[in-house]
Design a protein that fits this description.
The chain is an alpha/beta fold. 32% of the residues lie in helices and 15% in strands.
Length: 385
């Protein structure tokens, strides 16, 4: 359950670092979900938060999939079901970045319709187990949640969108990769449909330390707990071990829809949870991965090795003219729903562009963007969490 609390801590600190200005989204419970069995882990209906577009953006849509890790065992899912990321969200969402309604802070998307889909299934919106667990009474129905939310949004105006984007951060960034092409098929008449995955590229690192940890505690655990073997893309599962099809490096090359990936080569979450337990333990690494000034020489060396493995993995992807890539060197995880991640110029800048500028130019075909920071081999304390 520490993964959930880490996610909530990262989100809270990121929002605290933002200016006072934020866009306020009110949650909507999907009333039709119960009849469809499209429910959260605890059996309650899912929800989303909505901001209505206006003016030139009235027929343009961003659908954002929330992140928050995964539950990796029945016991873990029981614990998760009692918290924020396992049940209906009924509150108000304060967000900025790509959600910002200020033209000066978000000139390309400020007046679009924006949807924040709350995450309550623990499987990156992929699970679909028919039977309710007879012991825990939990339901694993992430894919159904995704489908009923999309159906409601299509009826609300998404179905006639001129421009649309599917986006998400962390586990939601992985969900964006997994659902990207299916999202496009929902909008056959849209002029432009693209996907943005923020911190969703979780590497396998088969030749890098901690591979057993990443396989056992991530790919195997998530696929087994949520019975995802038949839900993952057959373009991948027909070729390799289906459990490895949760690693985006095995998925991205098969995606036809234009995809933009925003990543840190020193991804804070991956270093904390997919690396540190294999080289000393989470507790030993906690201070280092929250403030690089507290890292010792050995830890910095291991982080540099992770960076090398991460960049090598990204660079092995097939070249695609429609794909955008922004890989920087700040120690952080998640970017696009906070002002300091979206338009901050103190560290998250490549080719003289902030993340917001790079995504906007790529989305509207003003220019391509494919930049990886290969100059800095050490992590930075930017304005990140």
């Amino acid at each position: 359950m520490e993964l959930v609390w880490l996610y909530l801590l990262l989100v809270s600190l990121a929002l605290m670092n933002d200016q006072v200005h934020a866009t306020i989204l009110t949650s909507t419970i999907v009333q039709t979900a119960l009849a469809r069995g499209a429910v959260c882990l605890d059996g309650k209906p899912p929800s989303y938060s909505f901001y209505k577009g206006s003016g030139s953006g009235h027929n343009n849509w961003i659908v954002y999939l929330e992140g928050g890790g995964w539950c990796i065992s029945k016991e873990d899912c029981v614990t998760r079901s009692l918290k924020y990321l396992g049940t209906t969200y009924r509150g108000v969402q304060n967000v900025s970045g790509i959600f910002d309604d200020d033209i000066n802070l978000n000139p390309d998307f400020y007046n679009w319709n924006k949807v924040y889909v709350h995450y309550c299934d623990g499987s990156s919106f992929m699970s679909d187990i028919e039977q309710v667990d007879p012991v825990t009474k939990l339901t694993y129905r992430g894919a159904r949640i995704y489908n009923v939310v999309m159906e409601e949004l299509l009826a609300k105006g998404l179905g006639t969108a001129d421009n649309a984007m599917l986006a998400g951060s962390s586990a939601g960034g992985l969900a964006t990769i997994l659902h990207c092409d299916m999202f496009t098929t929902l909008l056959p008449h849209a002029k432009r449909v693209k996907c943005v995955s923020d911190s969703g590229f979780f590497i396998h690192g088969k030749d890098f330390i901690g591979v057993e940890l990443r396989e056992n505690n991530f790919s195997h655990a998530v696929v087994a707990t949520h019975e995802l073997t038949n839900s993952l893309p057959c373009t991948c599962t027909s070729k390799i071990n289906p459990e490895w099809c949760l690693f985006p490096e095995n998925l991205v090359d098969n995606i036809k829809t234009p995809l933009f990936m925003i990543e840190s080569a020193f991804d804070q979450y991956q270093i904390q949870h997919h690396l540190a337990p294999a080289v000393g333990g989470y507790e030993e690494w906690y201070n280092c991965t929250t403030n690089i000034k507290l890292c010792n020489a050995t830890q910095l060396g291991i982080m540099k090795d992770f960076r090398r493995a991460f960049i090598e993995t990204v660079m092995r992807l097939n070249k695609s003219p429609s794909r955008g890539i922004f890989v920087h060197s700040c120690l952080r995880h998640m970017h696009i729903f906070t002002k300091n991640g979206w338009i901050d110029s103190s560290g998250n800048v490549l080719a003289n562009k902030t993340i917001g500028e790079a995504v906007g130019d790529w989305y509207f075909d003003r220019s391509t963007f494919n930049e990886i920071d290969i100059q800095n081999d050490s992590p930075w304390n930017c304005t990140s969490t």
